[in-house]
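Homework help board

Subject: predicted structure for assignment chain

Our instructor gave us this sequence and asked us to write out the predicted structure in token form, then describe one feature. I got the tokens but I'm not sure how to describe them. Can anyone check?
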Amino acid sequence: MNETPKKRDPAIRISAMPSDTNAYGDIFGGWLMSMMDSAAGLTAARYSHGRAVTVAMDGMQFHQPVKVGDEVSVYTEIVNTGTSSMTIDVEAWRRERHRETAVKVTQATFTFVAIDDNGRPRPVQG
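My token output:
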């Protein structure tokens, strides 16, 4: 899995901190999933020009651990849109603090729905 992410800007880039780890020093999977959901949410809100909420996520497989100090970059790509929904592919990559190469640690597909002020689905304005 020693690849390089496509030349694009990440939706989120963050350093993994000690408070994000389990007793063995690996980053919690839930923390990483939260970063991915946040990145997809930023993408969905920008694309739909308003509030959007997560309604589904496909299963994740962790290919590599993330350690304290690793730089985590989360990339998003909208792959499908419906009347009010957006399907977003999300990849998380890690880079050791003092290295140049990045490694993909997981990916998932998130589905978001654009909603209005009353919490009802609204058309995507993409």
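Reply (TA_rk): Your tokens look well-formed. For the description, you could write something like this. The mean pLDDT is 92. That's the kind of observation they're looking for.
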